[in-house]
């Protein structure tokens, strides 16, 4: 929803010495739709997230709530749920920006 947040997160992590990629086609995780019960509307966000980050070694989200949505709610709203459980449930793969402080 606010792309500058992701860009600023990348800037901070690079200043801390991390080498990372920023996929230009990433989008909001869909949390606003999921939180308000619009599971069908959130499904494309979940499926897009899985496609964009399927080959990433580690994914850093700027918000801990995004991490929770991906770990806990994606598996219930997407036909690709098995990918989410297998790929993004591990704390070593999906991190919140707060993990770096």
What percent strand? 5-15%
- What kind of assembly state do the chains in view correspond to? single chain
Q: What does the main sheet amount to?
A: 2 strands, parallel
Overall number of strands: 2
Low-confidence stretches: none
- The helicity comes to 40-55%
What gyration radius follows from the Cα positions, in whole Å?
Answer: 13 Å
Separate helix tally:
5
Order of helices and strands: HHHEHHE
Mean pLDDT: 81
Fold blueprint:
Layout: H1 3-15, H2 31-35, H3 39-53, E1 59-61, H4 64-77, H5 81-88, E2 94-96
Parallel strand pairs: 1-2
Supply database-style keywords:
101 residues; mainly alpha; two-stranded parallel sheet; 5 helices
Q: Can you give a write-up of this model?
A:
- By secondary structure, the chain is mainly α.
- It has 5 helices and 2 strands.
- It has helices spanning 3-15, 31-35, 39-53, 64-77, 81-88, and strands at residues 59-61, 94-96.
- Strands 1-2 form a two-stranded parallel sheet.
- Helix 4 packs antiparallel against helix 5 (81-88).
- The protein is globular and about 40 Å long.
Quick rundown:
With 101 residues, the protein is mostly helical. The protein has helices at residues 3-15, 31-35, 39-53, 64-77, 81-88, and strands spanning 59-61, 94-96.
